[in-house]
Amino acid sequence: MKRILVVDDQQDIRELVRMTLEIDGHEVHEADNGQAALKLAGQLGPDLMLLDVMMPGGIDGLEVCRRIKQQASAGTPAHMKVVMLSALGMKADQRNGLAAGADGYLTKPFSPRELLAVVARMV
Length: 123
What we know:
123 residues, alpha/beta, Rossmann fold, 5-stranded parallel sheet, globular, two-component regulatory system, transcription regulation
């Protein structure tokens, strides 16, 4: 069982992801904005963060990813993987996610099977 933090401002997306991952036996935590994501990542030390790119509140997913990867030595586990979950599916968007430090990129909409395959590769 892996600890996974799901970060998305849309509750229905978080619910779908949580239910899919819990059925697969994972421990799932949720955040609805970038600030909460950073706080929970430091507290929980998840194995994987599934992170939306576009979120309200001043800190988008790309910035969360940058901070997580920069803070790996300051309390956030270095082993934590980050997968961007985004409706932004252009190659440039994917490059931006990877440039921010993401370990993977999954474009919305995605199927539960796609999600489970990405999670299996990451953890």
